[in-house]
Each structure stands twice: as structure tokens, then as C-alpha cells.
Amino acid sequence: MDLVLEAFDTFLFDPLYATFLPAKTPGLAPNGTYSSFKEVPTAAPYTAQNTWTYEPASQYLSFEPGKYAYMSQWPRDDWRRQLVTLFLITWIFGLLIYYVFATLSYVFIFDKATFSHPKYLKNQISLEMRQTNTALPIMAVFTAPLFLLEVRGYSKIYDNFDEAPGMWYNYMQFPFFLMFTDFCIYWVHRGLHHPLIYKHLHKPHHKWIMPTPYASHAFHPLDGYAQGLPYHIYPFLFPLQKFAYVFLFIFINIWTVIIHDGEYVAENPIINGAACHTMHHLYFNFNYGQFTTLWDRLGGSYKKPADELFQKELKMCQATWKKQNEDIDKMISEVEGSDDRNYMPDEPKKIR
């Protein structure tokens, strides 16, 4: 994250901090001396408050700071400035990734026939966006301190590829990261479905029975934070190269959109794609995994996606919807007791 912080400081935050928290120009130094002429002080040399010295975050890529980097009373290495900046990056950059990739998925991939499904909610997309807009800044408050610890050198993140446990690790860190986080998220997610927790934290995400890509980040903030913890814990336990770290965090956000896009192309017994995750939204207590079906299979919570989901002419037909509707009503009664969702008006649907 120090590489991302350096880029944002250079191109955005240095001028902002220099403007709103400018370095105070010192006047005559308190211990200034006087010349032989009566009461004519010698000019004390100008000493800026900002004594920060630039050191590139990476030997492979750097962003040379401009003059504004030295013009704030909060230098770049001030922990308060780093915490505030990391919070803003986590919040605003997270929103940017969310809206860009959710919108791309919505425009080019998402099946708009979903709007006619009997379990699609009234004003659902705007509700999904509102939930995300509410959750992300709160999630950023809890996430920024973890990024701060990482930036200040408490993690096992490394820059030079030679610093890896072996050259092989520079390649294997990707499957290691995915396997570790998939395992952890499975148990975190399954724990969020415990009756004592579900209604308080995880139910807001299950409001979307037929999710759109905009539901991808529409969580209760503590729910979203809990499911994100494995990604942040990993570099404190295991080595992770800086560029791999940035790539994986962007990938995770895109993957979260992908599994909510309703396009069931991954008819694969191993990959936990959109079809598997749709089964989770439809039937609640199955398919908790993030990337693979491995832990669901071992934990007895795997539910194979229905065959009709992979057939364009069947996945949105009346018979499929009727069966889903009946099964969903049973699951809602079992898990939630009553259904407080506000569905679209009960009117003739455009169905295949």
C-alpha cells in the first residue's frame, strides 16, 4: 500500500495538505545572535518544518515528489497524515472501483430479464447503491489502521523479488493467497449465517435475493469488514510482493462484482462463480466460499447450481421462477421467520 500511497500523495494529496495544512514559516530563531551593530539581528536561516526525505516505495516504480511534498506541516511520513490519507484512498478508491466495474458488468453482462423475477425488489439498484455508499466509509475507518501498520513496516510485504523465500514464491504467492483467503472467508461467511449473528449483520446483504452487480459491495459495514479481514491479515503472516498485493486487492473487488453479475458461464465443479453464488442468495445456507467450492464440499454446504441456470432459454422462464419462488419462501421462513422485503408490483411479467 505504500506504493499506492506514494502515487496518491504525488498527484493529489501533496497539494491538498500544502494548502490546508501549510508549513509555518519560522521567523527569527529563538536563539538568534546579534551582530556588532546595536539591535540588528542576523538573519536566521530558513528551516522548514517539513524535514521529510523522499525514498521511493519501490525500486521498480517511483513517483518523484514535487515542491508541494515539502510544504505541509504534516510531512508524508507523519502517521496522522498517513492514516487520514489511507482512509480517503480506501473509501474513495473503493467507491471508484465499485462503480466502474459494477457499471461495466451491468451494461455489458448482467441479464436485464432479472428485473422481471418475482423476487426482484422495488428500486433494488438504488437500494444496493445506497447500502454500499453507507457501508464503504465505515469499512474504511476500520481498514485504514491495518493499512497504516503495513505502510509503517509491520507486515511481511517485500519489494525486491530477490527478497522472496525463493524465486518460486514470486509465482506461488498468488495461489497461496487465494487458498488462504478462500479458507478464512468460508468460515467467516458461514459464521455470519449463525442465527445469533445473521439478522444483525449479514441479513442486509441477503436482502438481494436476485442480486445485480451493484449488490457486490452492499453489506452491513461490519459484515463487509469481517469478510475483508483475511485479505488484510495475510501479509502480516506471509510474505507478499508489493505489486502482487495491489493486483490482488483490485482483483478481489472485481471478482466480488463478477459473482453477482448473474451471468452463469463458469459451469465448473471447482470455481465458485456467479452460478454458485446465486444459489447462495436463493437458498441462503449453501456455497459460502469465495473463489472455490473446496471448503463447501468439505464442510457439507455445497449446493450444485441448477442445470437450468446454464441454459439461456430456461434460466429466466416461468417454470424456473415458480420453483425458485417456492423454495425461497421456505428458506426465508426458516432463516428469517418473516419476509420484510418490498418486491416489485405483482403484475404480468415479461417471461420466456
Automatic annotation (TrEMBL):
Keyword Transmembrane helix: yes
One Pfam family per UniProt: FA_hydroxylase
Keyword terms, alphabetized: Membrane, Transmembrane, Transmembrane helix
GO cellular component: membrane
A GO BP annotation: lipid biosynthetic process
Highest taxon listed in the record's lineage: Eukaryota
Residue ranges of the TM segments: 83-110, 131-148, 168-188, 243-260
UniProt key word Membrane: yes
One Gene Ontology term of the molecular function aspect: oxidoreductase activity
Fatty acid hydroxylase domain residues: 175-300
InterPro entries: Fatty_acid_hydroxylase, Sterol_Desaturase_Related
Compartments in which it is found: Membrane
PANTHER family, per the entry: STEROL DESATURASE
Record-given protein name: Fatty acid hydroxylase domain-containing protein
Organism annotation: Karstenula rhodostoma CBS 690.94
